[in-house]
Amino acid sequence: MRILLIEDDVVTATLLKTRLAEDGYLVDHASDGRGGLALAARESYDIAIVDRMLPEIDGLAIVKAMREAGVRTPVLFLTARSGLDDRIEGLEGGGDDYLVKPFDFGELRARLHALGRRSPLASTTETVLHVADLEMDLIKRQVHRSGKEIELQAQEFKLLEYLMRNVGKVINRATLLENVWDSEQDRRRTVVETYISRLRSKIDRGFTDHLVETVRGEGYRLRAPGQPPAPGHGPEEPPP
Fold first, then answer.
1. What is the DSSP secondary-structure string of 77-122?
2. CA 4: distance to chain centroid?
């Protein structure tokens, strides 16, 4: 399941991204209201976690704008504003649930599970991803290419899942580190290059049609069906 987290507090956002990733969620994070609203309008999410007090655009205005635009993603307000009037305003403004900081993560998890059952994506959430002849089963945690099983380590699986969900897009190192690696200790400068190289050797070895690409000076991508090879594609000169 994909979660949109709109939270400006660095400590809270880091904790949530780490714990939610451990629970198997894919998390996109925005640290201000403008960026959060842009993500909500552009992408599809199962759930949005929204702080009330945000820079640029406050959380209540974000949710009202989402509802006016027809976005039906369930929203959990996560905020320090604990007054009864605040709760009523949040729920009447388009929120589906309201949790006050400081919070217990177990309670947050239970509320997310409940909201997930209401999500308009719940009945159509993909459990198997496909890109060309590459297949990833998210339930069985298996990957096949042209019917051949490919054994991946847990971090390799997470990286490939992110690339498959963003097929055709060039993604830079910083974005991959933010969304695929959980802790700062794991975010060494060369870790992305190392794992991309591992994926390339496992996914593309023995195939003339290479899917895992390094786009020099820009980032990495999983090539979509029919998409021409990226200019300057190659293993050298890692992007920033």
1. EEES---HHHHHHHHHTT-SEEEESS--HHHHHHHHHHHHHH-TTT
2. 8
**What's the Cα-to-Cα distance from 62 to each of 30, 75, 182, rounded to whole Å?**
12, 10, 27
Residue 86's closest CA among 130, 37, 52? 52
> What are the structure tokens assigned to 36, written together?
């959060």
Q: Give the list of residues 6+ apart from residue 168 with CB closer than 8 angstroms, or none.
A: 221, 222, 223, 224, 227
How confident is the model over 34-81, as pLDDT tens digits?
999 999 888 888 899 999 999 989 999 999 999 888 888 899 999 888
Phi/psi of residue 231, nearest 5 degrees:
-60, 130
* Closest to 103 in 3D by CA, of 36, 31, 16: 16
Grouping H, G, I as helix, E, B as strand and the rest as coil, residue 217 is coil
Q: Which of 223, 132, 204 is nearest to 231 (CA)?
A: 223
Burial degree of 198 (CB within 10 A; 0-12, 13-18, 19+): middle
Residue with tokens 């660095």: 10
Q: Per the structure block, which two tokens stand in for 91? A: 């729920």
Q: How far is the C-alpha of 224 from the C-alpha of 212, rounded, in Å?
A: 10
Q: Is the pTM of this model over 0.90?
A: no
Q: Which of 177, 178, 163 is nearest to 220 (CA)?
A: 163
Determine the distance from the C-alpha atom of residue 163 to the mean position of all C-alpha atoms in its chain, rounded to a whole number. Answer: 10
